[in-house]
Amino acid sequence: MAQVQITVNGKTQRADVETRTLLVHFLRDTLGLTGTNVGCDTTQCGACTVLMDGAAVKSCNVLALQADGAQVTTIEGLQKNGAYHPLQQAFWDNHGLQCGFCTSGMIMTAVDLLSRNANPSEAEIRHALDGNICRCTGYHNIVKSIQAAAGK
């Protein structure tokens, strides 16, 4: 066992974790933040994507110990004062989701993209989403949603 201190969605969290605990399981099982999904456990699907120190990471590939001292943002941390983040609203407005399983990972990946490029082309959006899999939508409305949120 080891102790970690991770700032999650602006709140400092301290906990004892087994050294093999993945960040995704720390977020879901220890903190109860279930918006970060466990999909493939092999970094293929992107459903577990969160921001760590501002960069998108697949939390099924990061040990909780590796996040010690880091700032982590989950999908739950995007909403401010009861208002959806512009990307969350754009996904809603543009039907960028169906079953919703991949949505949190898609949105977190897009937050990272838009923080680096406020007005990405369709090709840049599709490239950024390359590590995220959606089995329902065909990606058209996901891309449309990210384009709608760009610059907001």
Throw out a few tags for this protein.
Ubiquitin-like (UB roll), alpha+beta, DNA polymerase, domain 1, 5 helices, single chain, 152 residues
Q: Would you give an account of this structure?
A:
By secondary structure, the chain is an alpha+beta fold. 31% of the residues lie in helices and 16% in strands. It has helices spanning 23-30, 86-93, 103-116, 122-128, 140-149, and strands at residues 2-8, 11-17, 49-52, 55-58, 71-73. Strands 2-1-5-3-4 form a 5-stranded mixed β-sheet, with helices on both faces. The model has no long low-confidence stretch (mean pLDDT 96).
Entry summary:
This protein has about 150 residues and is an alpha+beta fold.
Number of domains: 2
What is the C-alpha radius of gyration, as a whole number of Å?
Answer: 15 Å
Tell me about the largest β-sheet.
Answer: 5 strands, mixed
Number of helices: 5
Beta-strand residue percentage:
15-25%
Q: Helical content, roughly?
A: 25-40%
Level-2 CATH architecture of the largest domain: Roll
Overall geometry: globular
Order of helices and strands: EEHEEEHHHH
Classified in CATH, the superfamily of the largest domain is Beta-grasp domain
Under CATH at level 1, the class of the largest domain stands as: Alpha Beta
N- to C-terminal separation? 43 Å
The largest sheet has its strands arranged as: 2-1-5-3-4
The mean pLDDT is 96
Overall number of strands: 5
Structural class assignment: alpha+beta
Low-confidence region ranges:
none
CATH topology of the largest domain: Ubiquitin-like (UB roll)
